Amino acid sequence: MKLMQNCSICSRDGVNNFNYIELEINESGVYELICSRGHTTTVLSHDEKFEILFDIGALALMDGNLIQSVASISASVERFHEFCIRTFLQKRGVDITVVDRMWKQVKNMSERQLGAFYFSYINEFNRNPPIIDNKQISFRNNVIHKGYIPKYREVYDYTKEMFDYIQDLLQQIKGDEYFKSYMEVALEREKVRCKDVKVENEFIGVRFARMATLTDLARGKQNFDEKFKFMKKEITLTKSM
Ligand SMILES: [Zn+2]
User: Fold this and answer.
1) Among 191, 178, 187, CA closest to 218
2) Residue 199 alpha carbon to ligand 1 centre in Å
3) With 185 labelled, which of 149, 174, 200, 237 sits at a CA distance of 20 to 30 A?
4) Is 1:24 a contact under the CB 8 Å cutoff?
């Protein structure tokens, strides 16, 4: 996956050096970049897991890797539910260690996580949450568990529905009160991430950056058909550089 990143050491020297860098997206969220002038910097991904997974799923769809696309988008929705639960609990002032301890009990059980999300949502908004269409749930299960080989159109429609589902929910938790909560959740995660980074150079060599800028789910309500066309153009451009 190619991403555009600027070099913070070049910036310090007064040079705007933006590079398209081929990166293998990883689980740790820690990336070492070497700019065109040879500086090495460490970048910590500032993205939520669900954002990264959605980008991977969208890229897989573009490349025609349809089963991988369904797997990534479906994992993105599950991590998005976790993100919502953690944000709601943070807003209520629940200690993160209490949440982590409970999460361990459900971490391998996606149905229980979904149930937790439904009732956290009701507790938060005093109304029923949006429910994913049964047709899409069956489609996902057929692909992931029964070896069904999907058609491009089916995966496109699935991705589009999940894109709208996440975006609609994000609109509901975008206000200032939630912003503070999910920034706190993100900071806790990044504290853990920072422990894994060996800072051998000066501080300027380490920075936070957003990697999942392709679908850009946090941007606000977007039309998926237009977004997908735009993404295709962007990817074609970066591949040629
Ligand atoms: Zn540089």
Assistant:
1) 178
2) 17
3) 200
4) yes
3-state secondary structure of 20: strand
The CB-side HSE value for 132 (13 A sphere, CA atoms) comes to 25
Claim: this prediction has a pTM higher than 0.70:
yes
| Rounded Cα gap, residues 125 and 127, in angstroms | 5
Q: How far apart are alpha carbons 239 and 241 in whole angstroms?
A: 6
SS3 at position 36: coil
Interval between CA 198 and ligand 1 midpoint (Å): 19
The CA 8 to ligand 1 mean position distance, Å, reads 7
Distance set, CA 226 to CA 43, 109, 221 (Å): 30, 35, 12
